[in-house]
């Protein structure tokens, strides 16, 4: 079966530094893959190349066999590659529900064009409420976004991403900056998205217990290059990975 997403010799140089170095990777639909690697390994840059924030120096990304070389990040979202919004993309003075409703509306605009005007406000609201249930924010629905805790804002970001209803979700360190108490809730949210079974998920995370718990496979980046790609068990038992990376790092 054709992979849903694939990269071919994907590389980017910043000056003389190859931040992503000739990465060939592919994923089948509905797979959950995590990306690990030390700080500066190129994980976020790799995401930026897939989502279209950055243009590769060499190589290409393919979505269902289609070259994305000339596609902007907006076009890639429209095709089906969604990246979690940064907190800065959340409207701080709107409520949680209003933020998600806007994301639902933006997806419907993309999909239905002319019909958009005739869609009922209630239908959009109900869809937004369903998403808030999924990301465990129902009780915060009428709270203004800038009053949320950091962890709640991250859940809202994921909710806004789900509202776009893309086939692929790129999640860049969803637990970053969270207190220890906030982590289990985000883990539950991601697990429930996985269990629904309709999304292909790429996750960058530093929390190894979370990665092992969720991932079908793990890829390891090191100095911009793909060091290993395999099941969690294969990666944990891979000597090169242990020497180059796992042994030298303490995880929280
Ligand atoms: N826009 C840029 N201009 C110049 N160098 C950059 C740029 N973006 C990233 N880099 C460099 O590319 C390398 C990879 O950075 P990247 O942020 O992708 O790593 P990372 O694996 O996501 O790290 P972390 O785990 O710390 O988030 C680093 O050396 C970084 O300094």
Automatic annotation (TrEMBL):
The keyword Protein transport does not apply. Residues 5-248 form the ABC transporter domain. One of its GO terms (molecular function) is ATP binding. Pfam families: ABC_tran (PF00005), BCA_ABC_TP_C (PF12399). Keywords: ATP-binding, Nucleotide-binding, Transport. This is ABC transporter ATP-binding protein. It comes from Solibacillus merdavium.
